[in-house]
Each structure stands twice: as structure tokens, then as C-alpha cells.
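Board work, copied verbatim: Endoglucanase
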Amino acid sequence: MAFDFDFDLLRDLTETSGVPGYEDRVRDLAREELEANTDRVRTDAMGNVVGTVEGDSEYSVAVAAHMDEIGFMVKHITDDGFLKIDALGGWDARVLRAQRVVVHGEEDITGVFGSVPPHTLDEEPDGEEEVGDRVVDLGRDAETVEELVSVGDIVTMEQSTVKMGDSVTGKALDDRVCLFAMLEAAREIENPDVTIHFCATVQEEVGLRGATALGSAGRARAGSRTQSGNVDIDPDLAVALDVTIASDIPGVSEDKHVTKLGEGTAIKLKDSSVITTPKVHKRLTSVAEDEGIDHQLEVLPSGGTDTAGFQNTNGATPVGAISIPTRYLHTVTETANGDDIRSTIDLLTAFLESEDGEHDYSL
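↓ predict structure ↓
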């Protein structure tokens, strides 16, 4: 059962590039899936894509998962043809040594982060490593590099997505695995009672910017598209999907695991950006129990998700969040369990199919 889903689509989504503000390629994939499985699809001025399934009720639910992955932007080209880069999202510079990248210049170019071999190190470097200290080597002379690359070009990690035992590993599972789960739920859900807006959002990794723009858009008439390029959804309820920490590995105490791989989808209670609405996370838990869906509860000490982008940007909105436990976040070996992915799809689908607009989420 570990891979009871469309692995090829998941692989396509994770291997496709799309850093904050430059989600074009993955947005095309998301839009294609939403056009096939929703009633109408719109894109706003920031690049958020919203696919809407019309229900019989005026009550509406927004479901959000972000498209962007962490990456870099070229900020300087040295006289020797090496690239200096600026981070787009939160990186631990230690994991970048000797990794392969793709520079999206005049064409897609393979490069590597340079690393000094241990043979020539007299001692360990002092102080913390910074992303700004890393350089990208393109294996070309400076004149050729100047012809192919410009300041402002985007850099992403080069990594394939593969099955590893009962798990999936690769880059950009944050948050493409949840984008995938949302798209699969849009495919599987049939004739919902309420209107559902499936939102593929942008720029989450640099401050939840896309979801906040969608949440703010409710000032105008729901469902309209304004001259400013807003897509106004004005939901009565919002549920966001994102990965969460699974530090269930040797060397980490159990109280810091947050979640564990293989124990099911995670129902979020809090992170540093949001405390989910108690009645929403209780209903998520009730649906999981009634449907026999493996689940666990998530209390995340730090980190934020698109959930916060909807909670209070246009007045107060009840919010919930579903997470996929993932090891090694913000690296090129992010790892999630296949059954946990399936459980996430099942819980989201069951929750949406059972939403009739009559549940009282008020406090």
C-alpha cells in the first residue's frame, strides 16, 4: 500500500523547478491538473492558482498548498566566472557543500557548489557557514559564463525523486508532496455539498505571501476577479497542507520528534504562525477516526504555514491544517512515507466530502 497513488505525478511536481516568485513551471503543472478536475481555474497577479469545484451550498472552503521551493538568485559573477548567490527561503549552508545545481540562465545549466577538499585544509573553518559564502562553479571560463548567466537568474537544486523502501525521497517535497495530495483530492472528490477552492499558492517560503494575498482578497465580491488581478475567494473555512518535521532519527530525543514516519497524516494543533481552530482540528480528528485513517497530532515549535495566511487577513476565519511528516526538511533528501501521503489524501478527501456548511466552528 505504500505507493497507492500517482507516483509519476508526484515525481514530476517535485523535480520541476519553482522558487518563490518564479513558480512558472510548476504552476503550469498545477494548472493542468486543476483544469482537468475542477469547474473553473483562475490565476491572480501574484501567480496563485485557484481551481474551484462548485457545490450546492453558498458555504465555501479554501484548501491551500504552496508551489514554491527554496532556492537561490544570482547576485554576482566573479572575474573568474564563479557565481555568488542570495538565498530564496531558509537554507542551512552546511548541506550545500558539493551539491549539484541548475542555473536557469539563457538555458538551463548544470553547476556545482564548490567545496575545498579535506586534503588541503589545515584546520576546520571558524564560525557558522553562510549561504553567501558558497560559490557555484559552472565548469566554464568567465567569458562564457557572462554570456549564459546574468544577475537575477534563478538557481535550483538538481535532484531526482525516487522510491526508497516504503518512502519517497528527493528535493522540494516541501511542499510539492502536499500540492500533490491536494491535486489528488481534487481528482477524487465527487459532488461536494459546499464550494471548494483548491489554491496552489506562491511565495510561502519567504513569508506566506501568496496565501495572505488570497486571504486579503475577500474584501471584494467572492468569486470575482478585480482589475488589480485579485482572485477573490472569501472562504468560510480554510485548510492548509504542508510538510512538518519528522526528526524520528538517532540522536534526537523523542520529545523533539514532532511526528514520526509511518504513523499517518498529521493534524496540526499549532506552529509558530498559527494556533488552529480547536473545533476544526477536532473534526479533522473525528473524521480520521470514523474513516479508520492513520493519523497523529502535530505540535510544531517553530515554522509557519499558509494556514496563517487565511486566519485573520480579512477578519477571522476558522482554520485547520493537515501535514505530511517529512525527514530532512530543506535539504535535497527530504523523505516522506508513502502510506502517510495516502493517509493525507484520504483525510482531506473525507473531510471535504463530509463538509456540509452546517458544522459550527465558532468559539
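The chain has two domains: 7-69+171-354, 71-157.
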